[in-house]
Write a structure and sequence with these properties.
The protein is mainly alpha-helical and 166 residues long. The chain folds into two domains: 71 residues, RNA polymerase sigma factor, region 2, helix turn helix motif (Rna Polymerase Sigma Factor, Chain: A), CATH 1.10.1740; 91 residues, Winged helix-like DNA-binding domain superfamily/Winged helix DNA-binding domain (Arc Repressor Mutant, subunit A), CATH 1.10.10. The protein contains eight helices and no strands. α2 crosses α3, α4 runs antiparallel to α5 and α6 crosses α8. The chain is globular.
Length: 166
């Protein structure tokens, strides 16, 4: 219950950005928590954080739902940069989980530092893919870049982030 109370609002915000449909987003978050409970035994800490696993699982469910809803890309690139700042501000105003927030802030600070090292367009590609939930085709269309370029930027950027965070 505590996990749901802590993570559901954030997960709903992520899924809403992907689906742009609140009832469908709520259903996806609900389904995600059912899958989390049922698959908790399959979580492997050596592969990443529990929070990362939960968000990846939820994001994948949202992307599957998106395939069937056929929405168009509508987000402005600056929205993603603002979203990162808003999440940091929101986290600062939740005194209930100070210890978790301290750990989360350290991780977020490291991630922000590493993201800031990326070139702006590459940073946007990563944020579009992992925060906004866009497919590589949608990112290429939104940024008016060839698909191969976007794929390459995302792959290289993820490698750079991984290296930076280690």
């Amino acid at each position: 219950m505590q996990l749901y109370a802590q993570e559901a609002p954030r997960l709903l915000a992520v899924v809403m950005r992907i689906l742009q449909n609140r009832p469908l987003a709520e259903d996806v978050v609900h389904d995600a928590f059912i899958k989390i409970w049922q698959s908790a035994h399959s979580y492997n800490a050596s592969l990443g954080s529990a929070r990362g696993w939960i968000y990846t699982l939820t994001r994948n469910l949202a992307l599957n739902a998106l395939k069937y809803s056929k929405r168009k890309v509508l987000a402005e690139p600056n929205f993603l940069l603002d979203l990162c700042d808003k999440k940091a501000i929101e986290a600062e105003h939740q005194p209930d989980h100070l210890f978790e927030l301290a750990e989360d802030h350290l991780g977020q600070a490291a991630l922000h530092k590493c993201l800031d090292r990326l070139e702006p367009e590459r940073k946007l590609c990563v944020l579009h893919a992992y925060v906004d939930g866009y497919t590589q085709d949608e990112i290429a269309s939104l940024l008016d870049k060839p698909l191969g370029t976007v794929k390459s930027w995302i792959k290289r950027s993820l490698n750079a982030l991984k290296e930076c965070l280690q």
